[in-house]
Structure formats: structure tokens, C-alpha cells
Specification:
- The chain is an all-alpha fold and about 240 residues long.
- The chain folds into three domains: about 60 residues, no CATH class; about 80 residues, no CATH class; about 90 residues, Serine Threonine Protein Phosphatase 5, Tetratricopeptide repeat, CATH 1.25.40.10.
- It has 13 helices and no strands.
- The longest helix is centred in the middle third of the chain and has 21 residues.
- The protein is globular.
- The protein starts with a helix and ends in a 12-residue tail after the last helix.
- The relative contact order is 0.06.
Length: about 240
């Protein structure tokens, strides 16, 4: 379907137009309704997207892409336990009932959420949730080893994990750079590249890559988080 090709290429407006046309002819089609909800999510219309996704899942509780999209929304709003719970619903469906890409995304969302829970949690949470992150990422990698989002997820692990738990800034940079080679419009990865260079003490590269991220996606959540200093999604200063 052309709309899915447009989504993969970050051409969200074009994808939205096609989904609108498809919905005009088949207003009850779950796949078209999910596509429209995903376009809304990417367009930062989280409330509208969430409403559509919840309606889809109420009527059809086994639509894996809808769970993943809703998990993204919850993650972006810092509801990390909620995001993990939705991703785990997809994982629980089983590999034979879920598209490979959606199954890999669920593992990525579970890993990302658990990583954030570990970061904000106490010592026990850091052990229980933190230790689950890498195995989940490796499962996603086994499903889609060259997927930009998978490479980005592994880069996040090496960037954010403490050295004693396997953290490695140079390895993180390698994964992030591989991710943007696979998808030059993956703005989140440019933000993490910028942050990695900042952590390594290269302010020039930091500004270069952060600017690149903002040129691709001016309202990027990670970039806004970094620029504002809120650091809800973790910023690492050069002395870390």
C-alpha cells in the first residue's frame, strides 16, 4: 500500500491524504483507521490519535499496530509503565500472529519503557527493569537486524547505560550513525548523536547534529527536551 510507503519515508501528509481517501470508501476498515491515527500521532495530535486507537482496540483487541502506536503516545507523555504494558500485549500475541515489523517494534517499546522506568526508579527498579532492557533489544535485533529503529534502540542502550552495565559512548555513536545511514530522516537519532558528542566534549558536533535534527523535525520531542533542559528523556552532561 502506497500510504505505508509514505509513512516509512516520513511523508506523513501524503500518507494522511491517502488514508482519508480510503476511509471515505471504507469508513469502518481497521487498517485505514489505524493509518489515520498513526498520521495524527506523528503530527503531534496525540489526543485525537489516542481516541481513534482506543476505539479500534475496543472493537478489535488484536490489532498489534494500534497497540504499538498507543504505546508511542504513552511513552512520549512519560507514561512509561503504560507504554510497556501495551507493548507486552503485542509480545503476548505470539510471533506467528503478528507482523515481524510490529513484533520488533513491541520489543523496542518494551525496552525503551523499562529503561526509563529503571532510570527514574529506585535501586530495585534499576536492577529489575534495567536488566531487562538489553535482552529485549537483542530480541528486536534478531527480528530486524538492519532496521533503523532497532539500531537506534541499541544505540540508546549504550548511550544511557552506566559503564558498569555495559554503557559505551563510542559504541552508541556507531549505532546511531548506522541508524541515520539507513534512515537519513530519523530525527531522534541525530539528537542522540548530538548528545553523545556533547558527552564526549565536542560542542561543535553537538550543535551541528542538534541543528540537523531540528531542520528535519522542528518539533522533535527529544530535541525540545534537550534544548529546554527538562531532560525528561535523559540528557547526559560532558562530565558523566
Amino acid at each position: 500500500m502506497l500510504a505505508l510507503v509514505y509513512l516509512a519515508g516520513h511523508k506523513n501528509a501524503e500518507a494522511g491524504g491517502i488514508f482519508d481517501e480510503l476511509l471515505a470508501g471504507s469508513p469502518g476498515a481497521v487498517e485505514f483507521r489505524w493509518g489515520k491515527a498513526e498520521v495524527l500521532r506523528r503530527g503531534r495530535q496525540a489526543a485525537k490519535s489516542r481516541k481513534m486507537l482506543e476505539e479500534i482496540l475496543k472493537a478489535e483487541p488484536y490489532v498489534a499496530p494500534a497497540y504499538n502506536s498507543l504505546a508511542y503516545i504513552k511513552h512520549a507523555s512519560a507514561d512509561f509503565p503504560g507504554s510497556v504494558a501495551l507493548a507486552q500485549k503485542v509480545i503476548a500475541m505470539g510471533r506467528d500472529k503478528v507482523d515481524r515489523a510490529d513484533y520488533a517494534k513491541a520489543y523496542l517499546m518494551a525496552a525503551g519503557g523499562k529503561g526509563m522506568i529503571a532510570h527514574y526508579g529506585g535501586p530495585l527498579s534499576k536492577v529489575l527493569n534495567g536488566s531487562a532492557v538489553f535482552p529485549l533489544l537483542k530480541k528486536a535485533e534478531s527480528l530486524r537486524p538492519d532496521c533503523p529503529e532497532v539500531l537506534f534502540g541499541l544505540g540508546n542502550f549504550y548511550f544511557l547505560a552506566p559503564v558498569v552495565a555495559g554503557g559505551n559512548k563510542k559504541k552508541a555513536l556507531d549505532y546511531f550513525e548506522r541508524a541515520v545511514r539507513r534512515d537519513p530522516l530519523l530525527a531522534d537519532a541525530y539528537v542522540r548523536i548530538a548528545q553523545t558528542y556533547r558527552a564526549l566534549g565536542d560542542k561543535g558536533k553537538y550543535e551541528e547534529y542538534l541543528s540537523r535534527a531540528l531542520s528535519i523535525e522542528p518539533d522533535n520531542i527529544l530535541a525540545s527536551d534537550e534544548r529546554s533542559g527538562r531532560c525528561r528523556f535523559i540528557c547526559i552532561s560532558p562530565d558523566k
